[in-house]
């Protein structure tokens, strides 16, 4: 029996990188370039350094992050990522400057948030009246505290009874601990949850391995549509509650 629904956040609740056009319209750097500029500026307050050097160290750290994330299912926190870059550069920052870099980096998507996907609020309001809801999402750069603030900005946080963010759980999807955290917060068994997300490996096969049902959501990203093992494919929020109800009825 399906008693709870878990949601990915990126390209499921919000449209990933839809904040980039907003940044461009305001004459701001891309997120990638701004992250490097934030650290470069702080380092220059202590001792001059070339931007290209900082950029190369940042790129190397990002490549290492991706290996750890995708192969070991661990997301470094912003704090850990900045420390890795500084270690590569052989540099240190005073505590106040280091904390400023971490905060400014983690706040970028909060200050200029990506767009909420059309119809999400109505669907969540409907589903929350019948199921317990939880976010299960990798944090990547914006920490879980910031992701909660993004949800609050769109008046969506109210519909969720739990949050399993990778920087807080200690692992990323599809590691079991992410879904165990959600189940514990919601007071249900893992196999009583249904997960919704846009990536077949993390959001479909991961939950399936735990005995859950899973729906591939393709409103903004459909790259996995042709090879998914999802129990259903949903292209827009208007169709999601009915799809979930059908799977719930079939599981009784």
From TrEMBL:
Task: Please name the source species.
Answer: Kiloniella laminariae
Entry superkingdom: Bacteria
Q: One Pfam family for this entry, by name? A: Hydrolase
Q: Name one GO molecular function term.
A: hydrolase activity
Q: Per the record's keyword annotation, is Chaperone included, yes or no?
A: no
User: PANTHER family per the record?
Assistant: N-ACYLNEURAMINATE-9-PHOSPHATASE (PTHR46470)
Q: Which residues belong to the signal peptide in this entry?
A: none
Q: What is this protein called?
A: HAD family hydrolase
| NCBIfam families the record matches | HAD-SF-IA-v1
Keyword field: Hydrolase, Magnesium
Q: Which Gene3D superfamilies match?
A: 1.10.150.400, HAD superfamily/HAD-like
Asked if 4Fe-4S is a keyword of the record, the answer is no
Q: Which cofactor does it need?
A: Mg(2+)
């Amino acid at each position: 029996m399906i008693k709870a629904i878990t949601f990915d956040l990126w390209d499921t609740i919000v449209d990933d990188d839809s904040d980039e056009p907003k940044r461009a319209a305001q004459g701001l750097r891309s997120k990638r370039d701004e992250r490097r500029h934030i650290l470069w500026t702080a380092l220059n307050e202590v001792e001059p350094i070339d931007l290209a050097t900082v950029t190369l160290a940042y790129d190397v750290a990002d490549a290492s992050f991706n290996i750890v994330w995708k192969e070991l299912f661990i997301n470094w926190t912003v704090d850990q990522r900045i420390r890795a870059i500084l270690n590569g550069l052989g540099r240190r920052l005073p505590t106040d400057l280091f904390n400023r870099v971490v905060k400014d980096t983690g706040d970028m998507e909060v200050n200029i948030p990506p767009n909420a996907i059309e119809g999400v609020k109505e669907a969540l309001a409907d589903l929350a009246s019948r199921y317990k809801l939880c976010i299960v999402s990798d944090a990547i750069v914006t920490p879980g505290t910031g992701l909660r603030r993004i949800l609050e900005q769109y008046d969506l946080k109210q519909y969720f009874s739990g949050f399993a963010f990778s920087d807080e759980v200690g692992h990323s999807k599809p590691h079991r601990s992410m879904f165990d955290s959600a189940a514990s917060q919601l007071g249900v068994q893992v196999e009583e949850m249904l997960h919704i997300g846009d990536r077949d490996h993390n959001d479909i096969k991961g939950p399936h391995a735990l005995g859950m049902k899973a729906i591939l959501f393709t409103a903004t990203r459909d790259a996995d549509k042709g090879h998914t093992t999802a129990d259903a494919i949903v292209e827009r929020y208007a169709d999601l509650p009915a799809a979930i109800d059908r799977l719930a009825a079939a599981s009784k």
